[in-house]
Amino acid sequence: MRVLHIAPTFFDAASVIGGAERFTWELARAMAHTADVTLLTFGPRAFAHERDGVQVQCLKHWGGIGHSLMPDPVRWSFVRALRAADIVHCYQVDVMSTNAGVLGARALGRPVFVTDLGGGYARMPSRWLPIMRLATAYLLISDYSRQLWLQRPRFRRPDHLDVIYGGVDTDHFSPGGAKDPSMVVFVGRLVAHKGVEHLIDAIGAGQRLHVVGRPYDQAYLAFLRDKARGKNVVFEHDVDDAGLVERYRRAAVSVLPSVATNYRGVVTGHAELFGLAAAEAMACGTATIVTNTASLPEVVADQETGFVVPPGDAGALARRIGQLCGNPGLAAMMGTAARRRIIGQFTWDATARRCLAAYARAINPGAAV
């Protein structure tokens, strides 16, 4: 089976280092174990190479449109890639590469799947034309994402909405070393819907919070730094993957305090489609606290692998953090259960198998998978 993955950006400093780009790359890499996989993407220069079994082809931006989610796919090399594929899988919904990929694949008689990773561009034709009705199915990364799409107009989606979930590289994100019972870690982009201010409010005496992530909202960062005055809070904006694993391993507890309504009163309905940072921490054997927001309760099993608390409730966060920091035995037991849950449900190989099963159903609807 020849599978073509199409993404507007790729996981590299020359493009974007983000969760969506990591998802695309890790899934393509896992799928390459059992299929002939090409990743077609866009960037400031053209290149082609093989990496970890994946044929990577990057088409150069022609210019004229500055937005990273607006690559210009209309060229013969794009059409040739579609023709060579048995299956086309596009990432992000309202981006030019997906709009063109869906139209081109269907014109060539190829099954075409789309995965929503939370990005998009307001001026896409798919916002007002029924282009996505032509997709074979949406392959979504949580049941929360599926429910969101079921609430949207029919012209914005195909009839079939399957859940494939996200994954974690459990060899890379793995336990190791001693835990620091005073250490609490948050990992994620520093944007307002992450609710980090509630976590800062929850940190008590004898506890140290590491806020690990790049700031994408300078006003929010200033707000957080003001909140953190007088508390043991460390902001770390340039931690590499090895450093990230080290912090997950050392922390007594990892916390994702996301909120649907941020401190400015803005409602974010399209965030936390999959709690990747929670899954990474759990794979490292760390008990994890999340809020009852979006997809997060699908990842963390309440009172088994950590705790689920109400969003925006610093008191509830403080109680659960104190419970885990003050009881290393409980934290270790939940951390062990957390890694077991990730290995059982949220590996990249498991995500690839769900994708391949969906592809097979499209090619041969009557076959048992």
Number of strands: 14
Largest sheet: 8 strands, mixed
Kindly, what is the distance between the CA atoms of the first and last residues, rounded to a whole number of angstroms?
15 Å
Shape from CA axes?
globular
Taken as a percent bin, the fraction of beta residues is 15-25%
Q: Would you tell me the structural class of the helices and strands?
A: alpha/beta
Q: What does the radius of gyration come to?
A: 21 Å
| Succession of helices and strands | EHEEEHEHEEHEEHEHEHEHEHEHHH
Average pLDDT score = 93
CATH superfamily of the largest domain: Glycogen Phosphorylase B
Low-confidence parts, pLDDT < 50 over ≥5 residues? none
Fraction of residues in helix:
25-40%
Q: Tell me the strand order in the biggest sheet.
A: 3-4-2-1-5-6-7-8
* CATH fold-level assignment of the largest domain: Rossmann fold
CATH class categorisation of the largest domain: Alpha Beta
Task: Give a structural overview.
Helix content is 34%, strand content 20%. With 369 residues, it is an alpha/beta fold. It has an eight-stranded mixed β-sheet with strand order 3-4-2-1-5-6-7-8, with helices on both faces. It has a six-stranded parallel β-sheet with strand order 11-10-9-12-13-14, sandwiched between helices. Helix 1 packs across helix 12 and helix 5 crosses helix 10. It starts with a strand and ends in a 6-residue tail after the last helix. The model has no long low-confidence stretch (mean pLDDT 93).
